[in-house]
Write a structure and sequence with these properties.
Elements (H helix, E strand, L loop, with lengths): L2 H6 L3 H15 L19 E4 L4 E9 L3 H8 L3 H15 L5 E11 L4 H18 L6 E5 L8 E11 L14 E6 L8 H7 L14 H5 L7 H9 L4 E6 L16 E4 L7 H10 L3 H7 L4 E7 L4 H9 L6 E7 L4 E3 L1
Parallel strand pairs: 3-4, 8-11
Antiparallel strand pairs: 1-2, 2-5, 3-5, 6-9, 6-10, 7-9, 8-10
Length: 331
């Protein structure tokens, strides 16, 4: 994906090849019956058919190396929100209502105060998303891990006839961007390397750098569920994570996207680019650059959709449109 990211320790090309190898092998699973999978691998979540009418949406994700900053600062509450957000924001992308998440926490040894703080964030994130956490797992792995790792697996339900896959997107459809709260939970390996010489109490961004970096990931579930319940013709939903706006290409439409009015770029991204010597094109590929979620709606429904979305995320606006061809062009 990027030279700077690879030098920081994340080789996205190698990761993509590894995922492809895993998916190819798992695709050979033979249960002795017809597969219940509804979607291809590579979407934000997959859906398993329960019956002719309903499906279960599911995904899994973690917080990543943002946890290293939480440990450095001794501030754990926000990462629970991150874990919820990274999962529910994926499940909602197929039009499913997230219902529950299971958490997995790996630690060298159990520390009740740290784990209580993590649980505070998990509770708050669950409330923001409207989900339950009915169970989970705590693993003490002193021989394997040196710090805390936090991962979730999220489950939702969707009417199969109302799934949102992106397959109906056509040229001219509006792309509406919802602002991010910052880095969210992606690109921290590169961000930490770029900002390694900046004290975490530095206030050049208007507040301590540590506060900016630990800002929890925005949760888009309630806004999206309300949009789906509205008369607007919602044709695609995209959680913008690592890979930036190229995440739009994970949807099932044979179109490209012209982003001619991107959302404002928060100053933290500009600082990373400046101090890390990261070119703009690479920044666009690694980070969300201020846009955490996108909704694709029929062109005639743009204003109706914005009215719904701005009630939850005031900075939402049309950032571009689907176009003939392929790829994502950011102007």
């Amino acid at each position: 994906m990027s030279d700077a990211y690879a030098r920081a320790g994340v080789d996205q090309r190698a990761a993509d090849a590894a995922v492809a190898a895993i998916v190819a092998e798992l695709g050979r699973i033979d249960t002795g019956r017809e597969s219940r999978q509804v979607l291809r691998s590579g979407h934000y979540a997959n859906v398993l058919r329960i019956d002719e009418r309903r499906g279960i949406a599911l995904c899994t994700d973690g917080v990543g190396t943002k946890l290293a900053l939480a440990e450095q600062l001794g501030r754990w509450e926000g990462v629970g929100i991150d874990c919820i957000a990274m999962n529910v924001n994926d499940v909602i992308c197929v039009g499913a209502e997230p219902l529950a998440m299971l958490d997995y926490i790996a630690v060298p040894a159990a520390d009740s105060e740290v784990l209580r703080a993590v649980a505070v964030g998990l509770r708050r994130g669950a409330e923001l998303a409207g989900i339950e956490i009915p169970g989970g797992e705590l693993a003490q792995l002193g021989d394997l891990v040196s710090g805390l790792d936090l991962v979730g697996a999220c489950f939702g339900i969707v009417e199969l006839s109302e799934m949102i896959t992106g397959g109906r997107i056509e040229p001219g459809d509006a792309v509406i961007g919802l602002p991010s709260s910052g880095l969210h939970s992606n690109g921290y390996t590169l961000a930490r390397r770029a900002l390694a010489d900046v004290p975490l109490d530095d206030e050049r961004l208007g507040r301590p750098l540590g506060d900016v970096l630990l800002e929890p990931t925005e949760i888009y579930v309630r806004a999206t569920l309300e949009l789906l319940a509205s008369p607007a013709d919602v044709r695609g939903l995209a959680h913008i994570t690592s890979g930036g706006l190229e995440n739009l290409l994970r949807l099932g439409a044979d179109v490209g996207y012209e982003i001619d009015d991107p959302l404002p770029v928060p100053p933290i991204f500009e600082l990373i680019a400046e101090l890390g010597g990261v070119p703009g094109e690479e920044m666009q590929r690694v980070f969300n650059m201020g846009c955490g979620f996108c909704c694709m709606v029929a062109a005639g429904d743009e204003e109706a959709a914005l009215e719904v979305l701005r009630a939850h995320h005031p900075g939402a606006r049309r950032i571009g449109a689907a176009a003939a061809g392929g790829g994502v062009a950011v102007g």
